[in-house]
Amino acid sequence: MKIAVTGATGQLGQIVIEKLKERVAGENMVALVRTPEKAANLGVEARAFDYTKAEELAGALEGIDKLLLISGNEIGKRLEQHTNVIAAAQKAGVKSIVYTSLLRADSSTLSLAGEHLATEELLKASGIAYTILRNGWYTENYTGSIAGALAGGAFIGSAGEGKISSAARADYAEAAVVVLTSEDQEGKVYELAGDNAYTLSELAGEISRQTGKDMPYKNLPEESYAEILKSLGIPDAFAGAIAGWDVSASTGDLFDDGKQLSTLIGRPTTALSEMVAKAL
User: What is the mean pLDDT of the chain?
Assistant: First the structure.
């Protein structure tokens, strides 16, 4: 059985490849990437795979049995790109697709949800066996801002006291590997999130504890937070999206206490304290 991973040089994809190598022989793995030369360090076969080049995708999927479709990173273009991949998988005879979706994509107010849910519907109608991994937030989405928060003297956001059940990328990558290498996964939809939820105030408190510096959390109106992000060089549309995601977090869209992720990977998800320490 040959397994392919899209976006294999991306932040999630690289971890999936490394963890998959622990369970699958290298000759049975394929890294699907835009630029194969950049995948030389992965130690597995790399094939050119650009979601936008629909006419080339089926050839790259030749001989693939299982496909991990890691969602594209171009917001607003994902559905078209995913449509291309699913159509190519049908043409190439791929037997199973595992897709990285969004936590509770069918009810979430996050602006990301629409394209994920539409992709899920495409998969269900494709005739290909599928498994959907509805991934919650990456803890790195917040710990990546710690250096800037320390420089600015406060951790800022618009999430209020919303609880966030995030997990490390490595946790979600391990879940994908478990599903890819297990039987009886067809048709399953997993709601994946971290074991222990926190607020951004609690994240700021953990930063204070580990650094010995006072780190308050400053909750801002959505528009004000977006303007600050723009002033830091983040493109206008993306700044607005980030602020909007925080507002969705404030209403509970990033909270989940089902512990399906830790159950799937057979261990607790990575603790917030560990992720903060790693970022410092």
Answer: 96
